[in-house]
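Thread: HAD-IA family hydrolase, structure

OP (GT): Posting the sequence first so everyone is looking at the same thing. Length is 218 residues per the record. Can we get the structure tokens written out before standup tomorrow? I want them in the notebook alongside the other entries.
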Amino acid sequence: MRNKLIIFDLDGTLVDTIEGIGFSMNKVLQNHGFPVHTIEAYRRFVGNGLRSLAKTVLPQNHRDDETIDLCYKEMLEVYSQFYSRGISLYPGIEDMLDRLTGEGYAIGINTNKDQRITEYIVKEFLGKWKFVKVIGDEGGYPKKPNPEAALAIAAEGGFKPYESVYVGDSEVDYKTAQAAGMKPVSVLWGFRSREELIKLNPKGVIETPDEIFNKINP
């Protein structure tokens, strides 16, 4: 068996969830008479959890804790109904996970998405594969880039940080990998720009899922 763990971010890395997120958050904003945003704009807004998203999309003069908490609570309710809107695995993800698990690599998921909705998505779209551990927001650990969840996944599988690779599509994932002492791999098909990720992690970017094998087995 391969002595290596691959931890994946979820949104923008394994699954394209941006339509459901944007649609749901816009419904919440509309309910309160606030301006909405384009789905494309949400690619820049996501990455730090739904409460942070609610704060980011609200008009600046309505970013008080009471309004943020209210919109966050409503977002959880609405998104739990529409999380699967437009959702899909990115091209090549299925083959990559098949090969990783077939070759004996351990895999895990660490996301800032709500734990309950994360589990819905993993069960519905990623249930074919066995993950060492799946940790989302409110799963008992601090949000990324705090490394505690990533380290807990490694510990669950019996891996040291240096035996682990952390794969994500944002600066949050890169910082998490660094803080955890894991090798960072940044994917270019997710929610951040190519320029941003190449500048951040010039030697660790991949354009297609199959390229991950070049990074975990240099």
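GT: Both are above now. Quick notes for whoever picks this up: The mean pLDDT is 95. The two ends are 18 Å apart (CA to CA).
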